[in-house]
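Can anyone check this?
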Amino acid sequence: MASVEREMWQNIRKTTRAQEIQFIFPVFPNAALDLNHAYLKQLAEQLRETPQTAAPSATQDDAEAAAIRELERRRQFGDALQSWWRKY
């Protein structure tokens, strides 16, 4: 499968996962919680695998800007996890 097509399907799965969990939760609450846990674990692994944005040879101003961008990215990730978790 081409990388563009694979990425498209991954994005589709990400957007439908919350609906799938809401659908099965009334009948299989433990399975829905397990799926939710697996999804959160996958998101955490993706965050760990994301390369740092600061370049080792950057000037101090560049390093500070990169650190701010990295903190903002992590805050957005945390917000996404919180909003996901609040649904359940």
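Reply from J.R.: I decoded it. The mean pLDDT is 78.
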